[in-house]
Each structure stands twice: as structure tokens, then as C-alpha cells.
Amino acid sequence: MYTAQFRYFRPADLGEAEALFRAGSDARFLAGGQSLIPAMKQRLASPSELIDISRIAALSFIRRERERLVIGAATKHANVAASGDVQASIPALAALAGMIGDPAVRHRGTIGGSIANNDPAADYPAGVLALDATIATNMRKIPAENFFTGMFATALEPGEIVTEVAFPLPRRAGYAKFPNPASRYAMPGVFVADFGHAVRVGVTGAAACVYRATELETALAHRFAAGALDGSAVDPAELASDLFASAEYRAHLVKIMAQRAVRACDG
To answer: How confident is the model at residue 182 (pLDDT cuts 50, 70, 90)?
Structure first.
């Protein structure tokens, strides 16, 4: 029987977490564990040390700062969904969090863990990208545009910890997804954000990495209405094709979910 061998640590603060990582041979940070633990069970990951940062109080918070909403990296999906500040500031982000997985996942998974893992079908990356968020780490600040670099890949360096995510407040925003009936992952999910001077559309669950649908952004910038996308076509060339959906079907769904997201902005 396969038995994982690792040492488990629960640091009290970021400084201790950083020191533990430097002292480890192949250490990994653990936030909600909704991605890393299954990967370990499937032998896709075998860290020598697990550094659990989920109990660091400084990483779990939600606060409104003038024209932006800031969420700590260790904040649970369920807390984002239920937060009055999120519901009042960016209701679409609260709605997105409420669509993630099931109640058990939402009460364990964290926003920082989700974006650091960058699963190609995760919900948060679409919102982070569409809302032009800034990801703060223990080392620097990274614009969302530069953060997501590929399938399960980000700009994070070894030992770098996501500490918070800052979202500019849009004029209006909406999120819609076509969920896989078993996993609840998006296949795809589309987040639309209207900032007045610009419209941004983030798409997850359709390609190897979250991306901006510039052709849909152009149509919505001209007229922000679901009908404005009637004549738009999403190119399936770069989209994923698997046992759940062909690239052509995903291209169709991206457009439909974008229209639903636009309608959700007025809901």
C-alpha cells in the first residue's frame, strides 16, 4: 500500500512559514487543500513538507477600501459568498464563490489556494482576470494579466505566498457557468465586468488557461447588452476538447455563458 511520507507544520505567521519553506527540501504550502490533497492521493504530488498557512489570521479577511475590495488569501469560498461587503461591492464575485463545488469544498477551499493552483476550469481565475485584480504576495504585487501563465502555472516563484487579492470595483459585473454535473467545475464559465471606460471578459474552463475573450469585449464595449453578442463567434481553435465537450461545443457555450453573464449584471 502506498503511504505518503511528509512532515506537517502549522506556522503562526508568514515569517515562520517562509522560514519553514527555506528549511524544507521539497516543501509545499497548504491553504484549503482542495487541490493539493487529491493530487497527493493520486501520487501526482509528494512534498517532503506540508506548510499549512490556512490558520494564519493575517491572511483571512474581507475589507472595502474606497474604490476596491480586498480579500485575504486564506479566506474561504463560503465566507466570500456570504460576505455583506462582497455582496454590496461586487455581487457577481459573491455569486461566483457560491457556485464553487459543494458546501464541503466551499467551507475548506480558499481564494488564494484556487488562484495559486490555477486549475484550467476553476471559477476564481475568470473573476480575477475580468476584474483586473492585483495579486499581492509576500514578495511583490502581480497584475492579474501577468499572473496566470498556463495550465496549472502562475507567475509565482518558489517560496512565494499569495497574501491578498485586490479587486477594483466595476460599474456592474456578472458571472455564468455551465457546470460539469459531477465535479461542478466550469465547462466553461464567463465573468463579464463593465468599468464604464472598458469591458473585460474572463473565460475559464474552455482552454488550457483562463483568458480574456477580446472579441466579446469589443462587442460589449460598443453596446453592453446580451443581444450585442448575437453576431459574435468564438474561435474553437485554441479551446479544449475532451470526453465532456468538443472545442466547438465549448466555443458555443462561451458565447451563451457570456450572454447570461451580461443579463446577470442587471439581476
So the answer is: confident
